[in-house]
Amino acid sequence: MFVQQAIAILDSGVGGLTVVKEVMRQLPREKIIYFGDTARAPYGPRSTEEVKLFTEQIVDYLIQFNPKMIVIACNTATAAALDYISAKVSIPVIGVIHPGARAAISATKTGRVGVIGTIGTIKSGAYTAALKQLSPFVEVVSQACPALVPFVEQGMFRSEESHIAVAESLNGIKYEPIDTMILGCTHYPFLVEPIGKVMGPGVKLISSADETAREISTILYEKGQLAKGDETPIHQFFCSGDAEMFQRIARDWLGEQLKRTPVVWQVSSL
Ligand code: DGL
């Protein structure tokens, strides 16, 4: 029997679902195997070595399903481990930082770009490097927002408290003269409304999800590996922690998409 090869997508928790949603929308024939390391999230405050190790463990786990591609849908893990994982496996591996930087460069008119992310991502300087690689003239202002991920992981992204945390976290960067700001953590699109309110209409918010899905599409097309046939793919979603919470957030976020495509939910401690 022909088994469709999946796109493997990983994150520290539910944040990568923002990339999953775009992949489901732009590539509805593709089968997805997702791993959210909810038991060990957040990755943001952890050391580079630890994030690299955790990412490698997830990739080793996902490889057993024989995916055609790996998407590190976590900025913190992309900054810490993309090069390492790319060198280790023989299938294409992409992260979310370069796609986010590319989308920001295409959106900015003034060349002044803001980046918000986890402590790990901001400390790595990976966004500044990716932006400057594309355009040496761009000016980059960064801000770590460590308070935000836990609200998303606890399913509290619509709460009053999370909106207050957003306002407090952006208190520095909101005064910067930027016209574009990268949501440099895949969890942040869950909070796009309060973030947009604080930053105001003059700042375009960039999520890597859209551009990452486009990049997946381009790579699979060039390799002649886009899914064929009309069979509805059955996705597999794994998490390492609270399965009920994970499913609740995933169903809420993916909403309509899940009505069309069946999902198998599983818990695994790696
Ligand atoms: N979603 C991840 C990111 O894009 C990690 C958040 C975290 O676990 O701290 O950076």
Question: Can you lay out the helices and strands and say which pair or pack?
Answer:
Layout: E1 7-11, H1 17-26, E2 32-36, H2 48-63, E3 69-72, H3 75-88, E4 93-94, H4 97-107, E5 112-117, H5 119-124, H6 126-134, E6 139-144, H7 148-153, H8 160-169, E7 180-184, H9 192-199, E8 204-207, H10 208-222, E9 235-239, H11 243-260, E10 263-267
Parallel strand pairs: 1-2, 1-3, 2-9, 3-4, 5-6, 5-7, 7-8, 9-10
Active site: 74 (proton donor/acceptor), 185 (proton donor/acceptor)
Organism: Paenibacillus tianjinensis
Catalytic activity: L-glutamate = D-glutamate
Give an overview of the whole structure.
There is one protein chain. With 270 residues, this protein is α/β, with parallel strands linked by helices. It folds into two domains: 7-95 and 210-267, Rossmann fold; 97-208, Rossmann fold. Helices cover 46% and strands 17% of the residues. It is built from eleven helices and ten strands. Strands 4-3-1-2-9-10 form a six-stranded parallel beta sheet, sandwiched between helices. Helix 1 (17-26) runs parallel beside helix 11 (243-260), helix 2 crosses helix 3 and helix 4 crosses helix 10. The longest helix has 18 residues, at 243-260. It starts with 6 loop residues before the first strand and ends with a strand. The model has no long low-confidence stretch (mean pLDDT 96). D-glutamic acid binds at residues 11-13, 15, 41-44, 74-76, 117-118, 121, 149, 185-187.
